[in-house]
């Protein structure tokens, strides 16, 4: 049996690892040419009951604890005028309920746990036709089971559903302050050890401490049209002008928050947020399934990577439990996955709706108090 996993993100690698632990081979086709080909982004909070459960099933929980940042669970929530609403500082002996981990460190943990031949780098899937994978470089491969772990723009998803991601009315500009404790100690102290959120007026200014000492800064705009990066006038081709434009957009916010933007270097990345319909399902096929964002793309509020990791682990366990009955394994996996991720997607959509509101900070304060 040939199991082809398209996509070497957390979910696809977790699936490959759990299969390996259970003596089942798989091939991961990844479009990146190497693990160092591009940056992996910021931090992920890995939840005890989902992402950490997956890593435990993969036999990697001790390795995860070695790279996890418990202090990354710290959180500060403020209003645009500088009013501090919530400050949560994590005690040194607190349980690792939602520790932060660098995306690249997590990916390396998973990659290092697999045999060298498992991941085929530089294989960008172009299309699937008659049971054959066609890659952008002209190569092909066959499969008995195809797993689409290839994210929002999945090339595998159309084999199962006509659903396509839709714009969620959210755009984000990501900036960076490298070595923040040395270069801007006052701003580093303001952000703290974990996550720093300022919410209000249809915008968010967020900052996140990374394990390498940098602070990632996110300027997020809600209720925006899909072509906002083109129509807003933000000069993305000029980093200094981009920072000046953002400072003007947040001009009526507390001066410390403007200083956070002004302190960033010339690193500028953009994100346009899309989502799949909440509760998306499809009729099972005996040879194809999906996991992670390919199956249930949600707003980026902390659930996506955790769901992907658990998808991969549980699909691996289902295949190990039914090695001679793949259709049953897929049905068992999808039945649980649909139910679990629909609940997570509804919660994510609810949080996204709160963030879009003019009084987002107060709504989130109420949410955190209930949590």
Automatic annotation (TrEMBL):
Keyword Ribosomal protein: no
Top EC category: oxidoreductase
Binding site for NADPH: 38
Location within or outside the cell: Cytoplasm
Domain FAD-binding: residue ranges: 2-170, 288-324
Principal location class: cytoplasm
Keyword NAD: no
Catalytic activity: a tetracycline + NADPH + O2 + H(+) = an 11a-hydroxytetracycline + NADP(+) + H2O
Cofactor(s) listed in the protein's UniProt record: FAD
Keyword entries, A-Z: Cytoplasm, FAD, Flavoprotein, Monooxygenase, NADP, Nucleotide-binding, Oxidoreductase
Binding-site residues for FAD, renumbered to this chain: 45, 103, 293
Example GO biological process: response to antibiotic
EC number: 1.14.13.-
Record-level Gene Ontology MF annotations: FAD binding; monooxygenase activity
Domain of life: Bacteria
Recorded family membership: Belongs to the aromatic-ring hydroxylase family. TetX subfamily.
Record note on quaternary structure: Monomer.
UniProt free text on domains: Consists of an N-terminal FAD-binding domain with a Rossman fold and a C-terminal substrate-binding domain.
Annotated function: An FAD-requiring monooxygenase active on some tetracycline antibiotic derivatives, which leads to their inactivation. Hydroxylates carbon 11a of tetracycline and some analogs.
Identification of the protein by name: Flavin-dependent monooxygenase
UniProt organism field: Saccharothrix variisporea
